[in-house]
């Protein structure tokens, strides 16, 4: 996943893109596997040697899709969700506020579906390392399998353990205790793991706790302030995604009582635009738009119908994901 | 300070503070003054820095751990801990223990303080310490005793900030520098809020070996943030600059990056790219050739030194370039193998994005930032109409901070409502579409081999045919476009 290649090779995981909500992950094999979709059937073997980002036609040449290289963001969309996964924006905010970079040593609990783990590994590789803990045995095993397949195994140590009880210290691992740059907690009772986190952190390192409930935040912040943490801040981030596309826009051709040039010739009004408020977009749509403006009538009233490229917020938005609490560990002397 | 040093030096026992977190001579540091103001200064041995109109010896700070607190009280400067400050605060006066205090008797006028401004000023100039001044103020306040312990503490904290200066020495990182510039001079970093920046770094797939094409007017802040995250000599950040005055990357130096990481930042005039585009446009229209980015090579990364901007004449055209320096620049543009494109400028993003777009690899990710959604709409429309990209998304972020206190948890009363907007997407190829030529039924005889070699298998002409698709507006495209529109 980290070595970006130009051409698809056998064994690669490729994202087949045919729409924002239609992305599939396939492993390219040199056999007769057929990928079936709404936009036709594709022989996977044919992808070998094809440049990433290419448009690939279906076997009957009627449909097409794009073959895209896998990255942690597409992975988090296409992976099979075993748990509630963290969303892209939360992941970005966590990685940034934990001050992660190539070389950081990070502790994470729990691993869950490995969506955040993958993003962390991408950021800290190759000099850093992620120690991730998952108390659910099957999930831990599944995560190891995914990390191996995605080629990031060497940057991640998955441990099946309840970190609240048994802590984060790993036997036989050098340069871990006292060298951890960041700790991320996604646990039902994060405050129970904070002493264990302190045991592996160094002066100036960062901690983040993700909790959906405010009561959890309350307890966590109390525990943090008692445990020599500073800069304790709790934030909430939500993404607002815009739906952007061409719309058929109808406007009535009416006399503009505030513009004398428009009152004389009504025909001209219907040919040009009467919609003075949206000048820039109007110009754009005639330049790039799909079709020419058409006139229409409602009773005796005339109007103009044309394609306009417009944007508005997507209706189905997420109202809450979780609260993010960040704090810096300041070692007391 | 940097990873190179971290690895070479013998690792200290975990009980000690690592060398990376000790303030050193020559470090660029951020000073947080009274939890309000942030400034960035360079610490040099035996030199003084100025904090709140007072001189502080750098030597007092050097050698101490980062995030340490220093109190400037009266005429002395000493290192303190948060606990000591808390004790100091609580020691000034006994706080109200009763629960039934409220603000029903609190007046809106400013008559509660009996001391005059002159008397307070006199106390301050006589060099009395902050606790004494505040205690005198409280003694002369008619309303202090009637306040709840919570508001009494609030009052004390406010006063202590006024009569004493506490500075915290912060290690500069993308995060801490963002809070500095975003609070003091947001225009300098294009109003880039931390959450928007974090999303840009994620969506542009920034990692150690990434090759980034970056157009920015954030005075080098974004360049530094990307370089900090890559922290590697194997990456490449190519930042074209506008105008012949050289790149404005002044903030980069505040990150304290290692030399090997700094060396991955390359810059030269955007004009050269524009000239190259002009040249390619002419040649492609004359020979009706396909796109100009098909000769990219990922492994060809042998650019050794930063192009010397001063030697480049403004009037020099690319067609007449012969020197090795110019060849290197051309190589940097055409063979950079960029998988990431970021545009964060004060300019309208459309022309800048399109100008750099040919040099982004297919399947590469791009992030375009603007304070104005209309500008991104324009870019979105062009990229969609020309079928240059997929997974196009415009988004903004709603971010809210919380006050978390026992029984007093709520969102902060004021919030920052303007995150700006970002357009993200993945570039796709517009030519060389892949069409199958043989039906499925005839392919059953193909032998399946389990090959372990890493070299890509040779594309057999019988199974694949590279068709140069000159007509992008075929039925299928239109059909798909409608599909995309309805999604």
UniProtKB/TrEMBL annotation, chain A:
Sequence ranges of Low complexity compositional bias: 260-275
Location of the tRNA (adenine(58)-N(1))-methyltransferase catalytic subunit TRM61 C-terminal domain: 63-329
An MF annotation (GO) of this entry: tRNA (adenine(58)-N1)-methyltransferase activity
InterPro entries with a match to the protein in the record: SAM-dependent_MTases_sf (IPR029063), TRM61_C (IPR049470), tRNA_MeTrfase_Gcd14 (IPR014816)
Pfam annotation, one family: GCD14
Superkingdom of source: Eukaryota
EC id: 2.1.1.220
UniProt main location, coarse: nucleus
Binding site for S-adenosyl-L-methionine: 113-116, 134, 186
UniProt keyword terms in alphabetical order: Methyltransferase, Nucleus, S-adenosyl-L-methionine, Transferase, tRNA processing
GO biological process, one term: tRNA methylation
Cellular compartments annotated: Nucleus
Name of the protein this chain belongs to: tRNA (adenine(58)-N(1))-methyltransferase
TrEMBL record, chain B:
Protein name: tRNA (adenine(58)-N(1))-methyltransferase non-catalytic subunit TRM6
One example GO MF annotation: methyltransferase activity
Compositional bias ranges of the Basic and acidic residues kind: 475-487
Cited Gene3D superfamilies: Vaccinia Virus protein VP39 (3.40.50.150)
Organism expressing this protein natively: Tieghemostelium lacteum (Slime mold)
Subcellular location: Nucleus
Polar residues bias spans: 464-473
Record-stated family: Belongs to the TRM6/GCD10 family.
Domain of life: Eukaryota
Cellular component per GO, a single term: nucleus
Residue stretches of biased makeup (Low complexity): 288-300, 436-463
Lineage of the organism: Eukaryota, Amoebozoa, Evosea, Eumycetozoa, Dictyostelia
GO BP field: tRNA methylation
Keywords in alphabetical order: Methyltransferase, Nucleus, Transferase, tRNA processing
């Amino acid at each position: 996943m980290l070595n970006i290649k130009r051409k698809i090779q056998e064994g690669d995981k490729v994202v087949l893109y045919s729409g924002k909500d239609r992305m599939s992950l396939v492993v390219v094999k040199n056999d007769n596997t057929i990928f079936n979709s709404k936009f036709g059937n594709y022989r996977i073997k044919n992808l070998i040697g094809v440049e990433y980002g290419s448009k690939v036609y279906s076997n009957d040449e009627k449909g097409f899709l794009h073959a895209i290289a896998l990255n942690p963001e597409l992975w988090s969309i296409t992976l099979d969700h075993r748990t509630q996964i963290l969303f892209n924006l939360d992941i970005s905010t966590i990685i940034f506020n934990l001050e992660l970079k190539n070389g950081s040593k990070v502790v994470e609990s729990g691993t869950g579906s490995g969506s955040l783990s993958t993003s962390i590994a991408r950021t800290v590789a190759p000099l850093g390392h992620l120690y991730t803990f998952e108390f659910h045995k099957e999930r831990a095993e599944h995560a190891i399998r995914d990390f191996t397949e995605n080629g990031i195994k060497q940057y991640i140590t998955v441990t099946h353990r309840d970190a609240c009880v048994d802590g984060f210290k790993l036997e036989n691992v050098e340069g871990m205790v006292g060298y951890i740059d960041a700790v991320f907690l996604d646990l039902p009772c994060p405050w129970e793991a904070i002493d264990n986190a302190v045991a592996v952190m160094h002066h100036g390192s960062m901690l983040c706790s993700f909790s959906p409930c405010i009561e959890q935040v309350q307890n966590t912040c109390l525990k943090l302030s008692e445990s020599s943490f500073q800069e304790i801040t709790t934030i909430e981030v939500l993404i607002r995604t815009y739906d952007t596309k061409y719309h058929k826009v109808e406007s009535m051709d009416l006399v503009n009582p505030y513009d004398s040039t428009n009152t004389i010739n009504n025909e001209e009004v219907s040919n040009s635009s009467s919609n003075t408020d949206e000048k820039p977009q109007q110009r754009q749509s005639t330049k790039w738009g799909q079709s020419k403006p058409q006139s229409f009538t409602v009773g005796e009233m005339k109007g103009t119908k044309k394609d306009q490229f417009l944007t508005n917020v997507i209706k189905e938005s997420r109202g809450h994901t979780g609260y993010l609490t960040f704090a810096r560990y300041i070692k007391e002397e | 300070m940097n990873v190179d040093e971290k690895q070479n030096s013998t690792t200290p026992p975990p009980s000690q503070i690592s060398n990376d977190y000790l303030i050193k001579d020559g470090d660029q540091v951020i000073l947080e003054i009274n939890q309000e103001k942030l400034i960035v200064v360079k610490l040099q041995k035996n030199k003084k820095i100025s904090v709140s109109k007072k001189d502080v010896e750098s030597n007092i700070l050097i050698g101490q751990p980062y995030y340490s607190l220093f109190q400037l009280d009266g005429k002395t400067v000493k290192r303190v801990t948060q606990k000591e400050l808390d004790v100091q605060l609580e020691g000034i006066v006994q706080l109200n223990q009763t629960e039934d205090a409220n603000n029903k008797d609190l007046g809106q006028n400013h008559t509660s303080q009996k001391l005059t401004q002159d008397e307070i000023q006199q106390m301050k100039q006589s060099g009395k310490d902050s606790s004494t001044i505040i205690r005198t103020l409280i003694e002369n306040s008619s309303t202090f005793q009637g306040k709840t312990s919570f508001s009494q503490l609030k009052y004390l904290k406010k006063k202590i900030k006024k009569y004493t200066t506490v500075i915290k020495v912060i290690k500069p990182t993308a995060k801490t520098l963002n809070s500095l510039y975003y609070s003091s001079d947001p225009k300098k970093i294009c109003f880039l809020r931390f959450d928007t920046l974090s999303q840009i770094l994620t969506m542009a797939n920034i990692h150690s070996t990434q090759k980034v094409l970056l157009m920015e007017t954030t005075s080098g802040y974004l360049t530094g943030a990307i370089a900090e995250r890559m922290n590697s000599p194997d990456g490449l950040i190519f930042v074209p600059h506008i105008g012949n005055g050289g790149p404005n990357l002044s903030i980069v130096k505040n990150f304290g990056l290692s030399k090997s990481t700094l060396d991955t930042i390359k810059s030269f005039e955007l004009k050269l790219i524009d000239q190259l585009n002009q040249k390619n446009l002419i040649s492609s229209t004359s020979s009706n050739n396909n796109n100009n980015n098909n000769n990219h090579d990922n492994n060809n990364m042998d650019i050794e030194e930063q192009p010397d901007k001063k030697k480049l004449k403004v009037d020099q055209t690319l067609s007449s370039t012969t020197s090795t320096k110019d060849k290197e620049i051309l190589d940097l543009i055409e063979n950079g193998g960029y998988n990431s494109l970021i545009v964060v400028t004060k300019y309208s993003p459309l022309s800048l994005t399109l100008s750099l777009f040919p040099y982004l690899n297919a399947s590469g990710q791009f992030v375009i930032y603007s304070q104005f959604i209309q500008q991104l709409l324009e870019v979105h429309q062009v990229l969609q109409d020309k079928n240059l990209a997929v997974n196009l998304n415009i988004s903004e972020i709603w971010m809210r901070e919380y006050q978390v206190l026992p029984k007093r948890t709520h969102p902060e009363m004021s919030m920052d409502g303007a995150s700006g907007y970002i357009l993200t997407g993945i570039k796709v190829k517009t030519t060389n579409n892949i069409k199958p030529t043989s039906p499925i039924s005839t392919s059953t005889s193909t032998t399946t081999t389990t090959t372990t070699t890493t070299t890509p298998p040779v594309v057999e002409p019988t199974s694949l045919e590279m068709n140069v698709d000159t007509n992008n507006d075929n039925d299928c495209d239109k059909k798909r476009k409608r599909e995309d529109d309805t999604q």
